[in-house]
Amino acid sequence: MRTSNFLLSTLKETPADAEIISHQLMLRAGMIRKVAAGIYTWLPAGLRVMRKVENVVREEMNRAGAQELLMPSVQPAELWQESGRWEMYGGELLRMKDRHGRDFAYGPTHEEVIGSLMANEIRSYKQLPANFYQIQTKFRDERRPRFGVMRSREFVMKDAYSFHLDHAGLQETYDVMYQAYSTIFSRLGLGFRAVEADTGSIGGNASHEFHVLADSGEDAIAVCDKYDYASNVELAEALQVGNERSAPSEDLKRVDTPGQHTIAAICDFLDAPIESTIKTLLVKGAEEGTVVALVLRGDHELNELKAEKHELVASPLSWASDEEIQSAAGCAPGSIGTVGLDLPIIADRSAVNLSDFICGANEDDVHLTGVNWVRDCAEPIEFDLRKVVAGDLCARATDEQEDSRLSITRGIEVGHIFQLGTKYSEAMNATCLDNNGKAAFMQMGCYGIGVSRIVAAAIEQNHDDRGIIWPDAIAPFKLVVTPIGYNKSEKVKAVCDELYQELTASGIEVLLDDRNERPGIMFADADLIGIPHRVVVGEKSLDKGMIEYKNRRAESAEDVAQDSILEFLKAALA
RNA sequence: CGGGGUGUAGCGCAGUCUGGUAGCGCACCGCUCUGGGGGAGCGGUGGUCACAGGUUCGAAUCCUGUCAUCCCGACCA
């Protein structure tokens, strides 16, 4: 491609409404343009990158035995009513009516379509296992789209759905997909991590997310390399910290604590370590109108996702109102405690093993010290409630060494694999006959990759102050040829044209910058759009029989003899 | 959905308080010089000042309403 024939819409200045680096660079490099909130046009430079990602994904899905198909983006409401999600899905489902007034939705995902399709197409276990995928535009009407294509409403996704006679078959394909995903992200040149994930409302027994590691990531991941453990912090198990509960050694004492309503204030006021305090949080119970107390050690934070998994706790988690707190505890938040509290008390593992601790007295501006479970209040229900923090022991650890502890890193979720079980096959009545001729609901798995999001994630991970640095596998062009004086020097023009033709003929995607621009502009543009390899052809070098080569990541350039440049480049780009 | 910003040329912004012919830089077009990291000069093109209504002799500017968009949070995966 020649720049004279390519829409190179680079911007010198950063558009004001772009916050994160990938969004800024995608706009500046002329990859995308916003059409509406969360809706973007992909310009040629951007689309070239997305196609590269798609192709790698397609190759590896095919290699893993999945078959590509294409389902409609506009889906009839009946399918969603059948699965119950027409009501359940909420505002994210973009609904519309056709000219006859019939309800449709723009597909945010395709379990319904594939489920009803395969209910018809698959009749016998002999057709199983089967795995189908598509690469297609989805629409989720996010409440708050943000960060460019990182969290857009319209986006490109690879979604795959597998079908099995039994769970063993599902597990087998799940493992194959796990491997395929690892291969895909490796081939894309991305630093990533597979992490255990919450199965959320979908349910099922296993789920992994694939995260591109980047400080700007929206998700926090707890990692322990020694035990090969990585989990979304939403899910990561928090072990008990501290020693086993010891016998009470202090008497229960009432202390006036006027105006001290936070843990930090109490510790300061009583000159007590924060590990000797507990906090008591009141939340709505699963049963309408009830309230439940959640207890954590003072220095720990509540993991709301864990809490709402307890059968006594309302899901989604919902805080008790001030009135409910007043009537249940007899005081305002800040003075709640476990003594004399007539509520179910669910305590985090690390709070359960405390003795002689400090808590509120359920009376405004009064606290208790020397509190002990059993002696002073009921034995609590033990439950994993807290958020893990860096330095916690890994849940798999069998020792307490430094390298058995968790570190917290941030990631961008670019892939997610689920074992769905029979949830959708039951909803869509997708059965097949087993080898006894009996109908059985098929086991399903589903496997997503955020194709457009990967483009942004790759930039988050690969950029410098001059612009994007594409991994070779997804660069819009592998090599840029920058002539000095293309329109002035016959010699330079001839060498560039020949180089361009030969490299192009050997299958290398080359951008020849034939604009009549000053070198600085050409260098700046090439760096901004992130082309990984560059050669500069100028009369000065040519007179010495040299052509200059530079890797985008390298500090400086090197001279290569003109007569060996082709082999050199073929080797460098291999 | 709650809170906070912002809407003036393709991009970045000033002008709004204090009403009086719509400006600057970049980009873009033409010419000249220049030619290894966003160069310089001269001359140009481009705007229903988000929209609607109101006040006024006169509104980008004041008033009312609407919309769009960005950020934080909640929500979602």
Shape, principal axes of CA atoms: globular
Number of strands: 30
Low-confidence stretches: none
Question: What fraction, in percent, of the residue positions are helical?
Answer: 25-40%
Content-based structural category: alpha+beta
Radius of gyration: 30 Å
Largest sheet: 9 strands, mixed
Count helical runs.
Answer: 16
List keywords for this structure.
30 strands; 5-stranded mixed sheet; RNA-binding; 9-stranded mixed sheet; 574 residues; 16 helices; single chain; alpha+beta
Structure commentary:
With 574 residues, the chain is an alpha+beta fold. It contains 16 helices and 30 strands. Strands 3, 7, 8, 9, 10, 11, 12, 20 and 23 form a 9-stranded mixed sheet that branches. A 5-stranded mixed sheet has the order 27-26-28-29-30, sandwiched between helices. A 4-stranded mixed sheet has the order 14-15-16-19. A hairpin with a 6-residue loop joins strand 29 and strand 30 (558-561). Helix 1 (21-28) packs across helix 12, helix 2 packs across helix 6 (167-187) and helix 2 (44-63) packs across helix 12. The two termini are 20 Å apart. The model has no long low-confidence stretch (mean pLDDT 92). The structure holds one RNA strand of 77 nucleotides.
